[in-house]
Design a protein that fits this description.
heterotrimer; A mainly alpha (297); B alpha+beta (369); C mainly alpha (262); A: mainly alpha; globular; C: 262 residues; 0% strand
Chain lengths: 297, 369, 262
């Protein structure tokens, strides 16, 4: 009895508020928009019994998905999101790995402080951290002020409202997600492995590629997924730092929903986004599971 | 006084009746029956994975038998949850509650049974005295040494005065010297409290030191259950013989004689003679098991019915004793032990010396399997 | 052994400068007396006073705090239960689905979670407001709590619970008397994480909040889209200060506990 209650409470909570909503999204993505409240038809009417249900089912169609394919805004937005996500994941790895490496090889008494410094931004508001870059990157911003003052450039650079600003924003906000898993895997590493490698004739550089990187692999993979997956659905960064030409699917969904009030189309966008994400999410979970098993043994 | 396990009228405290436990396809305990009597100090001995810990956990109530029943004082305890059993367990990891002091750890079980305050305090003090932990009552488990932690675990599991105390590798985490001291302490405490102890161990010396009876387990079954000296001197199988201490096993074919058997075992070697009550058929394959300490080493050919000749292959010097590995012409290697009652520089034999080995007819045990 | 020390030092210096410089600039310019945020015109705290007079922000802050406090508390209870089930229950019907539902929200894009919850609330006719935000925040933050708690629980020696049962505890008592005190740091960390996730959330709250309940991030969002403003700098500074003090205090307390234990 107690055991049933223990399992059932969180289980049913998640079923009702996580799983069921997805089916609703899927159902509405097959509906047609309408000027009504809620703004879509058909609605399932339970009072009509079986005829009502079959009426309801026959009115559902894949029209919205067809529209996503024919209007090039959408597939351009998907492709652009994928490109931004892949490139920014790679850039974040490039910035994040040296930081994680430096932390893992720092003196043990400094490590907790360094770890705290990496975690601290993670706890502070995402919105505020993105916002901070507007003042830096704008035409009259601090970056241009410094560059002009030091006479590196003559006329101000345009960075805000360009893809560059979006990349900077993503690297900045997602950096802790990349650093933490890599740090965790590097810190666990036994340093005598490197000594053994050198003893067996490796140079330091080849010991790094042959020992350190393979051992940090699980951390690197986890970090990449933790950046890639949420960036794909990102809204805040492209809205605040990107220009009108920075297309990202999260932003498109947001605009369909709030500005155009086309709920069925927004749902269809969400369904496609979810389908795009399912493979990386499954891969991520498999990686986590494998790592957990490796630690357990 | 007759030992209870030899007394047909004695009522066992615990009785395993055809108990089987499987985890999926793995058979941990295989149709096992065993009686353990009151005030016994019973040791379950075996290699890891032989099912001895599973047996203990079934007594404590953490595992339920797949089939069969377990009786405690003639009552089937299989359906009783662990918190309702009058059985307590001392865990291998000690499982001391890290957030509670030594005192509170010992008082934990008494508080659960709502013992009145004054009585509780005196019981905890009694346990602290018994285990010589009075000075550490207010410390946390991580502030005391490994040996002290072990005694806290013992005191905590004894505090409720259980009918039966289960000990899972209680000395596994202690170093050798401390372990030997603790073994005597444990026997002492067992005698003082009169509790029945069941201990699980893979250390045969420990089992021999503490136990009144030893049950040797292998692959979920009890191979032999006897007093330690019987197990050592009269093992019932080659498995038991080689699990406890060192032994020479010589394989051959039996020829029955008036008082036992003669063993034909190698080309060109004389027959070996062994006294035994076990009946062997003529030509039956069997083993002679001889402890190295029962074999004598001679420079000259001795007057004996059982003697072989060979060269010294290796000498293991252990301080108090030395074990000589002697290779026979037939290629067999026989181990023989001598006590080092002389200084080592005056040792009688050295590598490659030709020596004779001999033993009496009663030194060897004939084993059919 | 010192390996590539100059490299490590450079990586750490640039890395942390990159992480902290924008925040430092933001904080510094919140004390700028000019409305033109990019031009320094002298020290002033006037934007803080203006902020405190802005009823819209104060109302939003109040809503946010209530949502965060309630949702993180429910999320901690549910998340701890879920962690216990995940770590301790070997088999039950639908276990794979259950663990999938715990891990999926961690990486699910917020737009999808927000949209789907909104459509659910409308489908069942629940008016959008404080309750719907609390339900939404509880759902995604309970998963974070359960991940934090389950990693601690997995390292927790199970024989301690067995010892408690052996000494006469019911399973429920064993959990309260032995398990809970030992996983308490993780449970508290889980609560803090849930609280800060709720404070921080813009996207899910935008979908699930009705006109009656506007949270602070939604309020900030609508004014930030118009550009940089000194009030927002001041507000950001206050929020950053609050969180930093909280996190650093928590870190110091756990460090002291660690020292006391050794």
């Amino acid at each position: 009895m107690g055991r049933f209650f223990l399992i059932a409470t969180p289980y049913f909570w998640l079923l009702a508020l996580f799983l069921v909503p997805f089916f609703i999204v899927f159902k509405i993505s097959l509906s047609d928009p309408d000027i009504a409240i809620p703004p879509y038809v058909p609605n399932l009417n339970w009072n009509e019994g079986w005829p009502g249900l079959s009426d309801f089912l026959t009115q559902l169609d894949f029209e919205n998905f067809g529209f996503l394919l024919t209007d090039d805004l959408y597939w351009k937005a998907y492709l652009s999101s994928l490109r931004i996500a892949v490139l920014s994941t790679f850039l974040t790895l490039l910035v994040g790995f040296p930081i994680a490496y430096g932390m893992a090889r720092a003196e043990p008494r400094w490590r907790p402080t360094l770890l705290l410094l990496i975690i601290l931004p993670f706890w502070t508001s995402f919105l505020i951290r993105v916002y901070a870059w507007i003042g830096i990157l704008s035409t009259e911003g601090y970056l241009n002020q410094v560059l002009q003052f030091t006479r590196i450039i003559e006329s101000p650079l345009t960075v805000l409202n360009t893809p560059t600003a979006v990349y900077i924003g993503i690297i900045y906000t997602y950096l802790p997600f990349m650093v933490l898993p890599i740090y965790a895997s590097l810190e666990r590493m036994d340093l005598s492995l490197l000594e053994a490698a050198e003893d067996l004739g490796c140079s330091r550089i080849s010991a790094f590629w042959l020992i350190t990187v393979p051992l940090a692999r699980a951390g690197i993979i986890a970090g990449c997924f933790l950046v890639f997956i949420p960036v794909l659905g990102e809204i805040v960064i492209p809205s605040l730092l990107g220009g009108s030409d920075t297309l990202m699917i999260g932003k498109v969904l947001w605009e369909e929903f709030f500005n155009n009030r086309d709920w069925p189309l927004a749902s269809a966008v969400a369904v496609v986004l979810l389908i795009v994400l399912i493979i990386p999410i499954i891969l991520f979970q498999r990686n986590e599971l494998k790592q957990r098993e490796a630690e357990g043994s | 006084m007759v030992d209870p396990w030899n007394d047909p009228d004695a009522k066992p405290l615990i009785s395993f009746q055809n108990v089987t436990k499987s985890f999926g396809s793995f058979l941990a305990v295989d149709n096992l029956s065993l009686d353990i009597f009151e005030k016994e100090f019973f040791a379950l001995l075996g290699p890891s994975g032989c099912g001895k810990t599973t047996l203990l956990r079934m007594l404590a109530g953490f595992e339920a038998p797949t089939s069969g029943s377990i009786l405690l004082a003639n009552r089937d305890i299989t359906p009783i949850p662990p918190n309702k059993r009058t059985v307590n367990m001392m865990f291998q990891s000690y499982a001391l509650f890290p957030h509670l002091s030594v005192y509170d750890n010992i008082a934990f079980g008494l508080r659960r049974q709502k013992m009145p305050k004054a009585q509780l305090a005196s019981r905890v003090d009694e346990m602290l005295t018994l285990t010589r932990l009075e000075r550490f009552a207010n410390r946390r488990p991580h502030q005391i040494s490994g040996g002290q932690r072990q005694r806290v675990a013992l005191a905590r599991s004894l505090a409720k005065a259980p009918k039966l105390l289960l000990l899972d590798e209680p000395m596994g985490a202690l170093d050798k010297k401390l372990r030997q001291e603790t073994q005597f302490e444990l026997v002492d405490i067992q005698e003082k409290t009169g509790t029945t102890f069941v201990i699980v161990t893979h250390d045969q010396e420990e089992a021999m030191t503490v136990a009144t009876r030893v049950g040797v387990m292998n692959e979920g079954q009890l191979v032999q259950v006897e007093a330690p000296d019987v197990i050592y001197e009269n093992p019932n199988s080659t498995y038991v013989a080689s699990f406890l201490g060192q032994i020479n096993l010589i394989e051959g074919r039996a020829t029955p004689t008036a008082s036992g058997i003669d063993l034909v075992w190698a080309e060109g070697q004389p027959r070996l003679h062994c006294k035994t009550d076990v009946v062997f058929s003529s030509g039956q394959r069997c083993h002679l098991a001889i402890r190295p300490e029962k074999i004598m080493i001679h420079a000259e050919e001795p007057e004996s019915r059982n003697k072989v000749c060979g060269t010294v292959l290796d000498i293991a010097y252990l301080g108090n004793i030395s074990t000589y590995h002697v290779e026979l012409i037939s290629g067999h290697v026989i181990k023989a032990q001598t006590t080092n009652d002389r200084r080592i520089s005056r040792r009688s034999f050295t590598w490659d010396d030709s020596v004779w080995l001999s033993w009496t007819d009663t030194a060897a045990v004939a084993l059919a399997n | 052994m010192r390996r590539l020390t100059w490299f490590n030092t450079t990586a750490l210096t640039f890395g942390f400068a990159f992480l902290y410089l924008p925040v430092v600039i933001l904080v510094v310019y919140s004390f700028n007396s000019s409305r033109l945020v990019t031009v320094w015109a002298g020290f002033s705290t006037k934007w803080y006073f203006e902020l405190l007079q802005n009823q819209l922000f104060i109302d939003a802050a109040w809503v946010t705090l209530r949502v965060a406090a309630i949702s993180s508390t429910i999320a901690t209870i549910l998340g701890t239960m879920a962690a216990y089930v995940l770590v301790r229950s070997a088999r039950f019907y639908g276990r794979t689905l259950f663990s999938g539902m715990i891990y999926a929200p961690l990486v699910m894009p917020e737009v999808i979670t927000g949209l789907s919850l909104l459509l659910l609330f409308i489908g069942i006719g629940l008016d959008r407001g404080l309750v719907t935000i609390i339900l939404a925040h509880t759902t995604f933050s309970m998963c974070f709590v359960s991940v934090v708690v389950s990693s601690r629980l997995a390292n927790f020696d199970r024989s301690l619970e067995e010892a408690a049962l052996d000494l006469g505890c019911t399973p429920f008592h064993a959990f309260c008397l032995v398990t809970l005190p030992n996983i308490a740091p993780a449970v508290i960390a889980g609560w803090l994480l849930a609280f800060s996730l709720s404070l921080d959330d813009l996207v899910i709250a935008s979908f699930t909040a009705g006109p009656s309940a506007t949270t602070l991030p939604i309020r900030i969002w609508s004014s930030v889209r118009l550009g940089v403003s000194p009030e927002i700098n001041a507000l950001s500074t206050l929020l950053i200060a609050m969180v930093s003090i909280g996190v650093i205090t928590a870190a110091l307390i756990s460090k002291r506990n660690l020292l006391r234990q050794n």
